[in-house]
Amino acid sequence: MTSEADTALACMWVLVDELVRGGMSDACVSPGSRSTPIALALSRHPGVRVHVHLDERASAFFALGLSKATGRVVAVACTSGTAAANFLPAVVEASMSRVPLLLLTADRPPELRGVGANQTIDQLELYGKHAKWFVDAAVPGDRAAEETWRSLGRLALDAAGSHPPGPAHLNLPFREPLVPSENSVRRAAPEVGAVMPGPSPALEPTADEIDALVEAVEATARGVIVAGSLREDASAVLDVARRAGWPLVAEPMSGLRVPGALTGGQFLLATEAFAGSHAPDIAVQFGAAPTSRAGLALVANAKRLVIVDPDWLVADPARHASWTIEADAGTLANAVAARIGERGGTEWLREWLEADTTARRAVDGLVDSWEEPFEGRMARDLAASLPDGSTLVVGSSMPVRDLDVYMVPRTGLRVLANRGASGIDGFVSTVLGVAASGAPTYALMGDLTLLHDVGGLMWSARHGLDAVLVVVNNGGGGVFSFLAQREVPELEELFTTPHGRDLAKVCEAAGAGHQRIERASDLVPAVGRAAASGGVRIVEVVVDRELNVTRHAGVNAAVATALAHGVRS
Q: Residues 145-183, buried b or exposed e (16+ Cβ, 10 A)?
């Protein structure tokens, strides 16, 4: 006789099988009773690689990292109640950074909702507008048709992967009993079927949009291209900048911080005299809004701002854009580059390039003279030294800002960050999710970011992943030393929150390797040793917080002086 549990497992098997046929290959699962049918179906399906996590928040961020690295839908499953609520931070980040996650939340059946049943909360549309799609499924057996569950699988994948990608939520209620009989176990290979198409492509630019952008570029000599975070290849933007005779200010997460982009663009934008005399007549922004305040000021002060927004991010916090093009950045740039004439070297571009060379010489000459670790140098040296084919995952707060300012253009390095909502939560788990994709994985983060997700480190460090995590330990939230909060007497108590923890002991408890360095020149060798050793390894860099603030100011002053004196390479 077939029990409720046997029916539930059979229905979940069909659902999972359809997800696999549609291209899903990874799922993150946390232990729980109500989620037994979905956990067993995922675990027993030969097409799914299951990653088990004790903490649902860490599980969701691990899935986020894996999806960021692969571009594929990753499922994350949990039991009912607050377990599902713990997905919310990762759902917010996935929504704002356009990452396709499929949230499979187990639930009590309808008759147990709203009556005080244990471990039951209102899970209907739990993630609000942060989920692109929500369905509260029927209890397995109430709708027995196999096609019902296959249809749900197709709809869920389409919702998560269609443009722009993001999180989709399928709520799955189950009645007891939850553990199936032995005879119901299914381990057969999935039926061979047509694989569903991948994520929908971004919108193609219209002929009118291409014509108008070509006209704007050809009519303006004093232009600037700004490249914010981009998920897809947009290398043709380099051709547009070269042919237009415009400087390219590219953030590391754009994939365009390569030769051809400015090497010290953020220093130029942060130097008042240079930025004031080089406000562009037009700025064309590809992708997300700039990370730095100087970059935001550049696009806000341009006489005209055009935004190419392939992910529909509404990337205009200053509300200054005169025109937004919602189309694939690479396709648009290719079309524009093919149409515009090559302007050649202009006085405008020459001024930017000479200033860029001057700024980079001033920066490198100064920071290379300091043997004490400096956060800007750590970001520069780490990015420059990683082997081709690596992925660098950079934490929010100071690390992403330092990388944006100090990274030297190079090829062969992919840079990822949780910059949708710019939180520090779940960052370690995100990094380890990226590592699960198989890419050589490195990370740059602060000490509080590590401790904020220490649970993810404790669980995942022993699970066969390889990643090197460079942790800048400045004894708390160093970013607040650069913000207005530095003036309040409660700075230490309420904002920087020095932790006093021995990170070596934290790593020992987690089973992660640990090295501590106190000289700037030791970073690159230490990272190399850690990578060669395998496993999850922490390279702790001890930084004096106050000295770091002073040195940031010193670098900016050196750049301003060099530009004022017209130093030439």
A: eeebbbebbeebbbbbbbbbbbbbbbbbbbbeebbbeee
Question: Is residue 59 a contact partner of residue 429, using CB atoms and an 8 Å limit?
Answer: yes
CA-angle at 58, arms to 439 and 485, nearest 5°:
100
Per-residue pLDDT, averaged over 169-178, amounts to 93
Look-up of token digits 């690596």: 390
Question: Residues of 484-512 as b/e, b for ≥16 C-beta within 10 angstroms?
Answer: eeeeeeebeeebbeeeeeebeebbeebeb
Q: 294 and 300 in contact (C-beta within 8 Å)?
A: no
pLDDT band at 8 (very low <50, low <70, confident <90, very high): very high
Tens of pLDDT, residues 277-334: 999 999 999 999 999 999 999 999 999 999 999 999 999 999 999 999 999 999 999 9
CA-to-CA distance for 390 and 435, rounded, in angstroms?
10
Averaged pLDDT for residues 239-265: 97
**Cα distance between residue 463 and residue 509, in whole Å:** 14
Q: Are 326 and 203 in contact (CB under 8 A)?
A: yes
Interval 395-440: pLDDT, tens: 998 999 999 999 999 999 999 999 988 889 999 999 999 999 999 9
What contacts 535, CB < 8 A, 6 or more positions away?
A: 461, 465, 466, 512, 513
Is residue 247 predicted with pLDDT exceeding 50? yes
Residues 6+ apart with CB under 8 A from 326: 203, 309, 310, 312
- pLDDT tier, 181 (very low <50, low <70, confident <90, very high otherwise): confident
Give me the domains of the chain, ranges plus CATH numbers.
4-179 (3.40.50.970), 207-345 (3.40.50.1220), 373-543 (3.40.50.970)
298, 275 contact by CB (below 8 A): yes
50: number of CA atoms within 13 Å, CB side?
A: 17
Cβ atoms 153, 15 nearer than 8 A: yes
- Give the global pTM: 0.93
Mean pLDDT over the full length of the chain:
91
The two tokens of residue 329 are 């950045």
Report the candidate in 465, 424, 463 with the shortest Cα–Cα distance to residue 442.
465
Q: Nearest-CA neighbor of 448 among 431, 421, 425?
A: 425
Sign of torsion, CA 321 323 329 330?
Answer: negative
Instruction: Give me the residue label for tokens 């100087």.
Output: 294
CA–CA separation, 184 and 286 (whole Å): 53
Rounded to whole angstroms, the Cα distance separating 421 from 274 reads 31
Q: Which own/partner contact pairs does 193-198 have at CB distance under 8 Å and 24+ positions apart?
A: 193/21, 194/21, 195/21, 195/22, 195/23, 196/21, 196/22, 196/23, 196/154, 196/157, 196/158, 198/23, 198/161
Tell me how far apart the alpha carbons of residues 16 and 19 are, in angstroms, rounded to a whole number.
5
